[in-house]
Design brief:
The complex is a heterodimer of chains A (744) and B (357).
Chain A (H helix, E strand, L loop, with lengths): L1 H25 E6 L11 E10 L4 E8 L11 E8 L4 E9 H4 L4 E6 L2 E7 L9 E6 L22 E5 L17 E5 H5 L3 H12 L3 E5 L5 H6 L12 E4 H9 L8 E4 L7 E6 L2 E6 L14 H11 L2 H7 L8 H7 L10 H25 L6 H24 L4 E10 L4 E11 L6 E5 L4 E7 L4 E3 L1 E4 L3 E4 L8 E10 L2 E10 L2 E10 L5 E6 L2 E4 L8 E7 L17 H13 L7 E7 L6 E3 L4 E12 L9 E3 L6 E12 L4 E13 L6 E8 L10 E6 L4 E5 L5 E3 L3 H4 L6 E7 L5 E4 L4 E6 L3
Parallel strand pairs in A: 4-21, 8-9, 8-10, 10-11, 11-15, 16-31
Antiparallel strand pairs in A: 1-2, 2-5, 3-4, 3-6, 6-7, 12-13, 14-15, 16-17, 17-23, 18-22, 18-30, 19-20, 19-23, 21-22, 24-25, 25-28, 26-27, 26-29, 29-31, 32-41, 33-34, 34-39, 34-40, 35-38, 35-41, 36-37, 36-39
Chain B lengths: L2 H4 L9 H15 L4 H58 L3 E12 L7 E3 L5 E6 L3 E6 L7 E4 L6 E7 L5 E8 L2 E8 L8 E9 L2 E7 L5 E8 L2 E8 L5 E6 L1 E5 L5 E6 L2 E6 L5 E6 L1 E5 L4 E5 L5 E5 L6 E4 L2 E2 L5 E7 L5 E8 L4 E8 L1
Parallel strand pairs in B: 1-22
Antiparallel strand pairs in B: 1-25, 2-3, 3-4, 4-5, 6-7, 7-8, 8-9, 10-11, 11-12, 12-13, 14-15, 15-16, 16-17, 18-19, 19-20, 20-21, 23-24, 24-25
The chains are: A alpha+beta (744), B alpha+beta (357).
């Protein structure tokens, strides 16, 4: 009889296991990444999943899950509902930071909790260095931007990738996977209006677009006429020796002339747009003799340098798109007070070691020892109910959310935002969160080691959290554009060692705290109401390292809170002057769809461009521009922020003078200060190729010979050597640059 | 339950009841029931049982009262002992006694500035052989360190430990040139290094003192015989003069700067610049945010409470201290440990001892 039972069990098992196999043949899953799969580690990306149902309708979920190799085992997953009729296809989008997508993911099709189909996700690895996307029918168009790998940007080579017009997305944020987009020829003219709008928005967010057009190639130029206008119908030729003279230096330009789109415009001209820029090349880059000119490399280095494109590329520093400090801070919901672990130990210990033995003792005394079996567990239940009833309102009274957002103002109408929010429901095991378009969002849960994507997203409109354990906070991060936020009006200049001028708050918010960030210094301005204007006149401190309090003792909750706030305020800091302001006004980017108490903390920042002072000079003060280690020889180590220790050997610093948005006239390094004195100091003279000594205890001032000293990347190389037996420390040699305003 | 268990102890020993019962039984058997007699007998029986019961209760009452008496006696004794300990603790809570009378001995030509204790009170640093900085742990958790200072022709004179315990400021004097160095002590992750904070010709730097967050150092700067107190930032290239005087010492909360001018101890409130004179003495050291000690001309330690008006000043009693003349007393950050630097006559030497509360 036993074998019959076994046969029945086998049949049942087979019938269960055969079911998915049947479905697997029915559904086809195809995965695509826009921009021909170009992704950058510190960007967000879109994963397009195309699901086609061949034989029968499929109503279920498309899931993105790590692991879950065993069917029906629980793993955190991102899921989206899908309803496909027989023979139909449907595209599902998953948007998330590239760094998250680099984990091992599986795409699953599930129905009623059962895995119907599973496929391992294979993605191209993100590009190192800078990527130039080229839309041009000429296969070798703009190839000269790729050959300058070793000379340009030190360790960040530039690669060129040709793209067909249909590969370009309609969403601006996807373009952040590129550094430069070069458009030209007939192919570029095929871009549709949505693509052009997205590209313009990306330029505002910091992108660089190079437009190339020869005579009569109006298509692409006129699409961008509203941001960079070049008059059509004035074609002609420009003599190359004249047109190239500002860029070629001692390299002889090719003979003859080249046909141009507009004979009244120089060969290269540029326009700053928001945080980015547009560079117009007044000829078709595939036209000879320029297309195959041997010095194209030097020419384009010079063009990118002189028009500020290199500086923009270097300003786009790496940023953690998971915004962990934002997430950590958002978890500290103001009204929610997690009970202290000591209280839990006291309550537990009190019951186990005091109440229970005492109860037993009393019962024994009164001769009712047997009652202990009922009374002690009963007391446990009673105490638990009591703690819950009294403790719950103390922990949290109502559902709550806490959103931490950064708003980077690009112009009056456009601001870029990053946000992280934590949601906590009190009496429900599920809730929805509305995502305000055009923000893209990713639901998260706090995993064992890090934040794990988990939740349900539907049509970019809302995130859904389901089957939540009691009082478990859930999170989400968002990224995108905020419209019509307004901007700060500023007129700031550096006069000697003072920052002077005024700023006016023309944004939507009033601020409880505002400061100007200039290098390592923060100049406090205080609270600012809407429309309020403040005069600035502050001493600039030659700081070597940030002024922050070192913490030796463990931080209190309040101190941790303030520390995280400080990190969030410093997010995205670069070699620029910024106005940074904080406000707790409402900014509903990710909103819970149920009654709750919402908290907001917003950091608003805006880059400020310094104006010329009374002498017509723009000054980039000490500590504002970047200094990086270029080369080290022998024993060296870091001994704190901006402090370096050197044994027997040398450190060469690269002082990025070229990042100053001006025509440089003077560069000063205050090497006369005591910390530099124990070292032998030399600077590199580019023209002669020699290292020249700097006299001990004297400042290095470069004026007339500035051009001969700076490298092609407009940097100064400064070498500190020590032959001592003891290790000596030196601070980063920050510097000051003066010059006149750049003509775009 | 068995019958004998119901009977109180001693019952069996008294034969009256069994005899009465036996007699009653016999009587019942032999004569017709006399109910009057029966009730009398019953009364007698009950009376006897009550007597026995009362007797039984009397015995344990005696033993429990004895126990209670013993308990009370023990309680009183414990209370007296606790009170004695408490009052002793209260009486000696602020007393400072020398724990290590001769922690270290330096040549007599050494200066009192050549030794300092770290703010945690766990180790001291001193300079020997003119260019080696030594640390001496005060407990077994740490290891002693020897740090070679930058080899110059100068002589290292003053030592001051930073508030975070990882950096030491040292002053070097080379003929007419004075230098102020910051020494990063070696750790598991770093080999340690020295940073030249300030170098100046024709001056003498002395007595460096770190500010609350270690972001600046105050020191005395003597030029042409004039003593001034200057501050150099450790995080920028800024420096500024604060007052005329010497031996600056920041209070732990950074509110006051104590210093010596014209042989007097003065404190400056940093916010207002108001200066208060405390009395004659030298080497001020803070044992709390508003408690300052200094040594007077008689080699005694004097304490001033600077947040009361007028400033309250009293002599500090040091138990177990030798009769050597006290030059300088330096407190750890929380005012628990005190480093004493005294001048010993026989043999002539600078003796470093450690006291604690």
């Amino acid at each position: 009889m036993r074998w019959r039972w076994m046969l029945v069990l086998l049949m049942v098992w087979l019938s269960v296991s055969v079911q998915p196999a049947k479905a697997e043949g029915n559904i086809e899953v195809e995965v695509n990444v826009p921009l021909s799969g170009i992704i950058k580690y510190d960007s967000w990306m879109r994963l397009e999943v195309n699901v086609t149902s061949k034989e029968e309708a499929f109503h279920g979920f498309v899931e993105l899950s790590k692991g879950r190799v065993k069917k029906n085992s629980y793993q955190p997953a991102l899921r989206q509902p899908v309803m496909i009729e027989k023979g139909q296809s449907k595209k599902i989008y998953f948007d998330m930071p590239v760094q998250v997508m680099l984990d091992e993911w599986n795409i699953l099709l599930t129905k009623n909790g059962q895995v119907v189909q599973s496929e391992k996700l294979r993605l191209p690895y993100p590009k190192d260095g800078r990527t130039v996307g080229v839309v041009h029918e000429g296969g070798n168009a703009f190839h000269f931007l790729a050959i300058n790998q070793s000379q340009f940007n030190m360790s960040r080579p530039m690669t060129v990738q040709n793209l067909a017009p249909e590969m370009l997305p309609d969403q601006a944020w996807i373009y952040r996977n590129l550094d430069v987009l070069a458009l030209g020829g007939k192919q570029a003219a095929l871009l549709n209006d949505q693509q052009v709008v997205a590209i313009k928005e990306w330029v505002q967010m910091g992108g660089i677009v190079i437009l190339s057009a020869g005579p009569g190639q109006d298509g692409i130029i006129q699409k961008f006429a509203d941001v960079f206008s070049v008059a059509p119908g004035v074609g002609g030729t420009i003599v190359l020796s004249d047109g190239l003279s500002p860029y070629t230096g001692d390299k002889p330009p090719p003979a003859g002339s080249i046909p141009v789109y507009n004979k009244d415009v120089p060969l290269f001209s540029s326009q700053k747009v928001g945080k980015g820029m547009m560079l117009f090349v007044n000829y078709d880059v595939t036209a000879e003799p320029m297309a195959s000119w041997q010095h194209n490399l030097q020419l384009w280095q010079s063009v990118l340098q002189k028009h500020g494109a290199q500086e923009l590329l270097e300003q786009n520093t790496y940023m953690d798109q998971m915004t962990r400090p934002f997430l950590e801070l958002s978890r500290m919901i103001p009204d929610v007070q997690t009970p202290s672990p000591i209280w839990m130990v006291v309550l537990w210990g009190g019951y186990v070691f005091l109440i229970a033995p005492l109860t037993y003792f009393v019962l024994k005394r009164v001769g009712r020892r047997a009652w202990a079996w009922g009374v002690i567990p009963g007391l446990a239940v009673l105490i638990s109910v009591g703690i819950f009833a009294i403790g719950k309102p103390l922990v949290v009274k109502t559902s709550a959310s806490n959103a931490i957002s950064e708003i980077s103002i690009l112009d009056e109408h456009t601001a870029q935002t990053r946000t992280a929010a934590t949601f906590l429901t009190v009496d429900q095991d599920q809730f929805d969160v509305e995502v305000k378009a055009p923000i893209i969002a990713l639901p998260l849960t706090l995993g064992r080691n890090d934040y794990e994507p988990e939740g349900q997203a539907e049509k970019d409109q809302f995130l859904a959290y389901r089957n939540l354990p009691y009082l478990t906070p859930k999170q989400a991060i968002g990224y995108g554009i905020v419209r019509d936020f307004g901007e700060f009006e500023s007129d700031l200049k550096v006069n000697r060692d003072r920052l002077q001028g005024r700023i006016k708050n023309n944004t939507k918010f009033a601020y409880d705290n505002t400061f100007i960030e200039i290098g390592l210094q923060r100049i406090p301005i205080g609270a600012m109401k809407k429309g309020e204007e403040k005069q600035i006149d502050s001493l600039l401190e030659p700081l070597l390292m940030p002024r922050q309090e070192k913490q030796v003792e463990p931080l209190t909750i309040e101190e941790q809170h303030n520390r995280l706030k400080d990190i969030v305020m410093a997010y995205g800091q670069g070699n620029q002057v910024r106005i940074v302001a904080t406000s707790d006004e409402e900014l509903s980017l990710l909103t819970m769809r149920e009654p709750h108490r919402a908290h907001y903390w917003n950091v608003v920042n805006q880059a400020v461009y310094l104006k010329p002072n009374d002498q017509g000079l723009v000054t980039y003060p000490y500590g504002l521009l970047g200094v990086y280690i270029n080369e080290t020889v022998g024993e060296y180590d870091s001994s704190g922020p901006n402090l370096w220790q050197l044994g027997k050997g040398s450190i060469t610093f690269e002082l990025k003078a070229g990042n100053a948005q001006m025509e440089m006239e003077r560069l000063i390094v205050p090497l006369d200060h005591s910390p530099f004195r124990p070292f032998k100091i030399e600077y590199f003279h580019q023209k002669s190729g020699r290292w020249l000594p700097v006299e001990r205890a004297s400042r290095l001032v470069l004026e007339k010979d500035l051009e001969d000293v700076l490298t092609p990347q407009q940097s100064l190389l400064l070498r500190f050597s020590s032959d001592g037996t003891t290790r000596l420390s030196l601070p980063t040699p920050f510097f000051q640059v003066e010059g006149s305003e750049r003509k775009w | 339950m068995r019958e004998e268990n119901q009977n109180p102890r001693g019952y069996d020993e008294d034969q009256t009841v069994p005899m009465l019962l036996t007699h009653l039984k016999q009587l019942r058997r032999s004569v017709p029931v006399n109910y009057q007699l029966k009730s009398e007998l019953k009364k007698q029986l009950m009376q006897r049982m009550r007597e026995l019961e009362a007797q039984k209760k009397k015995i344990p009452d005696v033993s429990s009262s004895k126990r209670r008496r013993k308990l009370i006696q023990a309680g009183v004794v414990s209370l007296v002992v606790a009170l004695a300990f408490g009052s002793f603790g209260w009486w000696t809570k602020d007393a400072i006694s020398v724990r290590e009378p001769k922690l270290l001995s330096l040549p007599v030509q050494s200066s009192a500035e050549q030794v300092d204790m770290d703010p945690a009170g766990t180790q001291i640093a001193y300079i020997s052989q003119s260019s080696v900085l030594h640390t001496l742990p005060l407990n077994s958790d740490q290891k002693p360190l020897s740090v070679k200072l930058p080899p110059t022709e100068g002589k290292y004179l003053s030592v001051s430990w930073g508030n975070h315990g990882t950096q030491i400021a040292v002053v070097e004097q080379q003929k007419q040139l004075s230098r102020l160095w910051i020494v990063d002590l070696p750790t598991t992750y770093s080999m340690g290094s020295s940073r030249l904070l300030k170098e100046e010709e024709g001056v003498l730097y002395q007595a460096p003192s770190w500010s609350q967050n270690d972001d600046s150092i105050a020191y005395s700067r003597t030029k042409n015989g004039v003593q001034e107190i200057w501050v150099s930032s450790t995080i920028s290239f800024q420096e500024w003069k604060i007052a005329e005087g010497s031996q600056p010492e920041w209070s732990p909360d950074g509110r006051f700067l104590a210093f010596v001018d014209e042989g007097e101890i003065r404190i400056m409130e940093m916010r207002t610049g108001k200066i208060t004179i405390l009395g004659k003495g030298e080497w001020p050291s803070w044992s709390g945010d508003a408690r300052l000690t200094y040594t007077n001309s008689e080699g005694k330690l004097v304490e001033s409470m600077v947040d009361v008006q007028p400033v309250a000043t009293s002599e500090v009693a040091l138990f177990n201290r030798s009769s050597d003349r006290l030059i300088r007393a330096n407190w750890s950050a929380k005012g628990k440990q005190l480093l004493l630097i005294s001048h010993e006559e026989q043999p002539k030497a600078l003796v470093i001892s450690l006291a604690s509360r």
